[in-house]
Amino acid sequence: MLFLLLYSFAIQGSSILIPMDAKSQANHLKAYGITYYALENGLQIQWLLNYQGGSFLISDTEALRKECRIRGVSFEVISDAKTAAILEEIQSPSKNMEAMVLEKAPKIAVYAPQGNKPWDDAVTMALTYAEIPYETIYDEEVLGDALLLFDWLHLHHEDFTGQYGKFYRNYRTTPWYIQEKEEAEALAAKLGFDKVSEAKLAVALKIRDYVVGGGFMFAMCSATDSFDIALAAEGVDIAEPMFDGDPSEPGYQSKIDFENTFAFTNFILERSPMVYEFSSIDMTPKRQILMESDYFTLMEFSAKWDPVPTMLNQNHTVLVKGFMGQTTAFDPTTLKPTVLVLAENKLNGEARYIHGIKGRGFFTFYGGHDPEDYQHRVGDPKTELELHPNSPGYRLILNNVLFPAAKKKKQKT
After folding, report:
1. Domain 2-102: which CATH number of 3.40.50, 1.10.10, 3.20.20, 3.30.70
2. For an engineered disulfide with 279, which of 55, 267, 299, 314 has Cβ 3.0 to 4.6 Å away?
C-alpha cells in the first residue's frame, strides 16, 4: 500500500504539455487561444521552441484541462520528472531548441474601419476562432493616442497613401466604392484634414511612433507596402486628381525619402490610377507560378541564439501553402539590409514573410490576404476556419500574437 501511494505521488501531473506537431495536435489554432487563456489566468507558461512543433508547457490546473477539452485542444498531463527531462533535452547544446517564458497576455488592437466584416481580415478570423480577445480601433482612436493602451497592433488591407486601395479602374462606379470614398473623405474632414492622404499619413506617423516607442506591429496584404510608401512620401503629393482632387506633384518619384521607411527601399511607385498596384515592392505582377506549386519555405534559425525569428516561425511544417493578395510578396531587391526574411518562395525568388526592429519596437510584414483562400476576390465567401484548424499559414499569424508575451532575451546575432 505504501509503495502504491508513493508511486501515485511520483507520477502525479504537475504540468500540461500542449504538443504542436502535426501528429499530436488536433487543433493548432485553438491551442494558441488556450495559451492566451493561461496567460490571462496567471499560469506559468514556457513556449518550447522547436520541440514538437513549438509546444507549450503550462502549469497544471483542472480548469485548464477542462478548457482544453471544451475547445478540442490536444494535451498531455506530465509528471515533474518528465517536465525536467524535456527541459533538460531542450537546454542541451546539441539541440536547436529553447524554452521561452511567456509572461503576460498582450492587449491586442486591430486597425479597421467601422462596418468592416471580420472575414475581411485573416487576423480577426484567427483571433475569433482561437478565442483571443481584441479591440477594433481606427483613425480617431489612433490620432487620440489610444495605441498607448495596446501591446500589439494589426494592420491589414489598408491603403495609407489615400488612393482608396487602387480599386479605381474596376470598382469606381460600384456603390460600395463610392460609399467608402465618401466615408473616408468625411472622416478626414472631421479630423481636420483637407485630404484623405493627409489623414492617413498622420495615422501612419502615429503608428510609426508607437513602434519606435516599443510597440509590436503586424501587417498583412496592402497595409505592408502602403504604410512604408506613405512614410516615404511624407510632404509629397503622389495621388492623382480622382483620388484627392488635384494633380500629383511633378517628379515625385525623385522626392521619395527611403530613410523614413521600416522595411523597403529603392522602390518605384506606380503612377497610373488604372493599375491595381502601389509600387515595385509587390511581386504579384511578376509571378509566374502555378497554384499547385505555390509554396513558401520557412527559414531555420538558431533557437538559442536567435529566439525572436525562431518564435515567429514555429510550425508543424517548414513548407507552407502560398496565397495571394493585393500585396502577395515582396521583391527582395527592395528590402533594406536590416530586414530579416523569415520565409521565401524560392521558385519565384520572393520574400513572403519579413521581420525587423524599429527603435525599441518590432514589425512583421506577411504578404497575402488569407492563408486558406488562394486568390480572394471582392465578394468571395468567407473562410471557415473550422475547416482549417491546423493551418500552417494561420499559425504564423498567431505566433506574432503571442510574441509580445515572451520574456525578452537579448538577440545574439
Report:
1. 3.30.70
2. 267
